[in-house]
Design brief:
alpha/beta, Aspartate Aminotransferase, domain 1, Aspartate Aminotransferase, domain 2, 2 domains, 16 helices, binds pyridoxal-5'-phosphate
């Protein structure tokens, strides 16, 4: 807990915030998890009556698309709530998922390889579980960080090993050597990254994806490509079905892939917990002796669906699958521009970045190779002379809640700023609070 403050006359009552932090029982609130920050911000907000500017959690701040809601309502009226869904997913969703991948990524994946999961979180968890049981030597997952902290928590829950490196200083031509330094040890079963990246918002380009694919083939490792922010690199228009440019993907360059496609952000559908796990056809049909020993079946796709996903949740919410199917169909048919509906996050980022910079903050991950970073769902900031944890804790006194980069595997000090919950009407108060913070700690 921090004891050094430049000014105790803060926007939220100083004594109250201090008391709440002390009572939270979290050893270092500045290093708290997303949910710990959510909890303490809620408590301070309730006790002080002072509304926080929330930046900690990537909750979509937009209404879910009507087409999805109607799809679900219709399915519910048709009685799906009473029936267990098929483990491998309903046919309309599998069909539209396969089309979606063709339309927006220009990749051919048959329907059978497109499987609904309870959020892409579950798809990741299932992937970690199966990949951890296929080879006794390859027992470690490699993260290209910074990344989404919960995936490492999943590995901790599974009791599995992971290694990680911050990719920022190893991009472009440097990536191959860095990746090879890990893969050549022979213990890596899979490489994980998100693209666009949570939290830095850097976007791996086609050359880098080719490098990853080449090494995945050379060392026979699986690439888990986390597309939680599908098509949300707003610098390019990725919204036109069947027309380039497409969402960049490693699937263009290797057969060793698993794609995690989330509906939470691009489709503002986080509450329904429905996502897609897409397995390369080659991997889907692969046979593995260790799987047979461990799960009683040696086929990758079959084991994943009928052994692992079955035991997790017996399938994915029936009506939510219909909702997602309806949204994908509308997107594939060109009737619903899902990218357009979330572009507002990028616009917000422009305005909010300006406020931070004006108050003396720096952008941590500021460049995307030679280009200035794009504006999207997240960006990252630091304040001179402060660790990320100190920054996060001190900002609680200013009515601002965020998470430190420390939990994301970043090599840098700072915090993540998430656009989704910051309303237009809050920009004035945010500017005031940041300006006071900048003055107090300059
Ligand atoms: C990189 C990344 N992966 C996965 C997820 C989880 O997605 P879902 O809601 O589909 O489980 C998130 C959500 O924030 C994320 O940022």
């Amino acid at each position: 807990m921090i004891t050094e403050f430049k000014n105790q006359n803060t926007p939220v009552d100083f004594g109250l915030v201090k008391e709440k932090i002390k009572n939270s029982g979290v050893p270092s609130i500045g290093n708290g998890t997303i949910r710990e920050i959510v909890k303490i911000a809620n408590e301070i907000q309730q006790a002080s009556g002072e509304k926080f500017v929330r930046m900690e959690m990537g909750v979509p701040g937009l209404a879910p698309p009507e087409v999805g809601i109607h799809g679900e309502i219709e399915a519910l009226k048709n009685g799906v709530a009473a029936k267990y869904p098929m483990l491998e997913g309903i046919l309309p969703l599998k069909k539209e998922a396969s089309r979606f991948i063709k339309m927006f990524m220009d990749v051919d994946v048959p329907r059978e390889c497109c499987i609904p999961t309870v959020g892409s979180m579950q798809g990741g968890y299932a992937s970690f579980m199966i990949l951890g049981n296929m080879d006794t030597v390859k027992n470690t997952i490699l993260f290209m960080d910074p990344g989404f902290p919960v995936q490492k928590q999943q590995l901790n829950v599974l009791g599995r090993k992971y290694e990680a490196f911050d990719v920022y200083n190893h991009r472009g031509d440097k990536l191959e050597q860095k990746l090879e330094s890990y893969l050549s040890k022979g213990n890596i079963s899979a490489i994980v990254y998100s693209n666009p990246n949570n939290p830095s918002w850097i976007c791996l380009n086609e050359d880098e994806l080719q490098t990853i694919a080449k090494l995945a083939d050379k060392y026979d490792v699986i690439v888990i490509e986390d597309l939680a922010y599908f098509a949300m690199d707003f610098r390019k228009d990725l919204s036109m079905p069947g027309r380039p440019p497409f969402q960049p993907t490693v699937a263009k360059y290797t057969n060793n892939y698993i794609l995690l496609i989330s509906s939470s952000k691009a489709f503002s559908y986080a509450g329904q917990r429905v996502g897609l796990l897409v397995i390369s056809p080659d991997l889907y049909h692969r046979q593995n002796f260790h799987l047979k020993e461990r799960f009683g079946s040696d086929k990758f796709g079959y084991t994943l669906i009928y052994k692992i996903l079955y035991s997790f949740s017996s399938g994915t919410s029936h009506s939510a699958q219909y909702g997602l199917a309806a949204m994908l169909k509308a997107a594939n048919d060109g009737d619903f521009n899902f990218v357009e509906s979330v572009r507002v996050y990028g616009e917000r980022a422009v305005a909010i970045k300006t406020l931070f910079k004006k108050a003396g903050f720096d952008i941590v991950y500021s460049m995307d190779l030679e280009e200035v970073l794009g504006d999207g769902f997240y960006f990252t900031v630091s304040f001179p002379g402060m660790t990320g944890a100190e920054l996060v804790e001190r900002l609680l006194y200013y009515g601002i809640s965020a998470i430190a980069l420390s939990g994301t595997g970043s090599d840098h000090e700072g915090m993540r700023v998430c656009m989704s919950q910051i309303g237009e009407d809050e920009l004035g108060i945010l500017a005031e609070r940041l300006e006071q913070f900048g003055r107090d700690y300059q």
